[in-house]
Design goal:
globular
Length: 297
């Protein structure tokens, strides 16, 4: 079964209390956030959202997954800010952004990304979305087209063409835990995202960040992300280059529906990485994204 909490219940259902090794990954990963500037903007519905910003040049916008903070892209911020204008967003109800009681569904969250691109004058931007942000970027393409986009990078997230009843049933079993035993669930989920060792300091820091999202908002954004049965109409609206990076077990729902509609889409499978593959195998991911950007029109 697949690995992302908002989409893929199997990993959490099977997850035991086994703890991944606590060896230090690297000084870069375990350090505090890279020296990027904090910024804020106000969305078209009046919500104040936070982002990290570094570098100058063509724009790359990084959007994290379910309840995750902007700084989880810290390796990419460091790497790409040498040559690009890098923006990593704290989506609404996540990280240091406002925590409104509404708007946690793909259409509104896609509008938030559009508001960011427009207000910061980032067009044409490379949009990079991970996990839950994948359906949000598909919604972006469906609602707004590609006029402000140079390319889409879809990382280990749902793009299915037929809802999986077993998966949805598993998610329904997990939601009560979000309300009732959230810290333990969050810690297990965070640990499950990595195949390679990360430090306990890093795990604690990420868990604390995830816990900033109110539980009702966490459930709302997850439910609305799996509610759509078929993403093919949205995929058909994509008129810009596409790169899909995913785990092997995700290929059928993350990559195959994309390539069935967009044969030119590039797919890269990260066999030795976990759900947070851009952290587990940062060098490969960064090289892949570098190459994609250089060949994008």
């Amino acid at each position: 079964m697949q690995s992302s909490l908002p989409f893929f219940a199997g990993r959490l259902i099977r997850l035991s209390c086994t703890v991944m090794g606590c060896a230090i990954m690297s000084a870069t990963l375990c350090a505090q956030s890279p020296k990027a500037a904090d910024g804020f903007f106000t969305t078209s519905d009046g919500v104040r959202l936070h982002y990290l910003e570094a570098g100058t040049g063509p724009a790359i916008v990084f959007v994290p997954g379910w309840c995750m903070p902007a700084w989880i892209w810290e390796n990419q911020i460091q790497h790409f800010s040498a040559h690009y204008h890098v923006i990593a967003l704290d989506p609404r109800s996540q990280g240091d952004s406002d925590k409104p009681g509404q708007g946690n569904f793909p259409e509104r969250r896609a509008q938030d990304v559009k508001d960011l691109v427009d207000q910061l004058k980032l067009a044409p931007a490379i949009l990079v979305g991970w996990s839950q942000a994948v359906p949000e970027l598909l919604t972006y393409a469906e609602k707004f087209g590609g006029a402000s986009v140079r390319g889409y990078v879809l990382v280990d997230g749902l793009a299915w063409e037929k809802a999986n009843p077993q998966l949805i049933s598993g998610m329904m079993e997990i939601y009560p835990q979000v309300e009732g035993n959230r810290h333990d669930l969050t810690e297990k989920f965070v640990r499950s995202m990595y195949h390679k060792p990360v430090s306990e300091e890093y795990i604690e820091r990420l868990v604390d960040s995830v816990m900033k999202t109110p539980s009702d908002s966490a459930v709302a954004m997850s439910v609305t992300s799996i509610a759509r049965d078929d993403w093919r109409p949205a995929i058909a609206k994509i008129d810009r280059p596409v790169l899909v990076a995913c785990e092997p077990g995700m290929k059928a729902m993350a990559a195959d529906p994309i390539t069935s509609k967009i044969p030119t889409a590039r797919v890269e499978v990260f066999a030795d990485a976990g759900h947070a593959l851009f952290v587990d195998d940062a060098d490969r991911f960064n090289a892949l994204l570098d190459d994609f950007i250089q060949h994008a029109p």
